[in-house]
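User: Could you go from structure to sequence for me? I need the amino acid at each position, not a summary. Structure tokens:
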């Protein structure tokens, strides 16, 4: 996570109804698709097959930490 630094908008664990971790969510910001693809090509959890599924979606972020951006 340190390596991602300012790319991170938010990150956290997804919990089941019993409060056990069932996955994770990572919302990142990159300058362009090429920068994202470079990150994905070198992401340790992808390379080591820790993540079973990775979804990439475009998101229009309008509020961060209660502040409109």
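Assistant: Here is the amino acid at each position, in order:
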């Amino acid at each position: 996570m340190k390596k991602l630094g300012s790319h991170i908008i938010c990150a956290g664990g997804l919990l089941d109804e019993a409060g056990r971790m069932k996955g994770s969510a990572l919302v990142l910001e990159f300058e362009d698709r090429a920068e994202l693809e470079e990150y994905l090509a070198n992401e340790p959890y992808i390379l080591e097959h820790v993540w079973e599924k990775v979804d990439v979606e475009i998101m229009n972020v309008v509020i961060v930490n209660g502040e409109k951006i």
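One structural detail worth keeping in mind: The chain has one domain: 5-68.
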